[in-house]
Amino acid sequence: MRYSYYPGCTISATGVEYGRSIDAVCAALGIELVELEDWSCCGSSAAHALDHELSLSLPARNIALAQPSGLDTLMPCPACYQRTLNADKHLREDEGWRKEMETLLGFTYNGQGRPRHLLDVLGNDLPAEAITSRVKRPLKGLRPVSYYGCMLVRPPELTGWDDPEHPVLMDRLLVALGAEPVSWSYGVDCCGASLSLNRSDVVKTLVGRLVAAAEEAGANCIVTVCGMCHINLDTRQQGTQMPIFYLTELMGLAFDLPGREEWFRKHFTNPLPLLKSLGL
To answer: How many domains does the chain have?
Structure first.
């Protein structure tokens, strides 16, 4: 299995442990990631609010870089995924803008390959036994809630997930790892990631609500596939110590891959006491 790979900016900054666990898990599953040469920021954090044209042109450039491979492009960041999907939709449907981009970027768009989020690839491109056969340390006793965040599944007409309000793909993967996912009603609520710098008070309120809901549901951790959501939930908790995991970190733990404790040491909310209490 081979994919073009757009890591995005978070992987080399606040989401280093996410990137390292992705590399390890994909290698273990036989997934080859071919990183785009000279990729650039997709502008997801600000461009769409400041300059509509720029919000489309920046990800369009990365689409142009990926096209020669003919491969789907795997992305770990929901914001990058959403912005790139939007640009790809415009390239497919807006002939005038497509010709403008083709001239500007020196390529001819052919629609081969498409933007894919990491969770989509792990949950839909692999047979279930590819996951279960790798499990060496079942995550028994781990009761996570799956947190998708608000950007991965929306807007549904663009992203096309199984259910924009109650997606289940992450739960299925967690069950395959031996965990006991807990049902809750906040899996696609916003954590306030876009307000992290200018309205931390709002972020603390939203994060507090999510953590309280996870505790009320009986969970002992939260699992996400978004770097921005992870850093928000991990650092903005007030008076609680709810561990926040990336899905790929738990996959690496269940697969008994080396280096996982280094990933966990990058967290602000220490997950090791929980894991040790469960014998993991």
So the answer is: 2
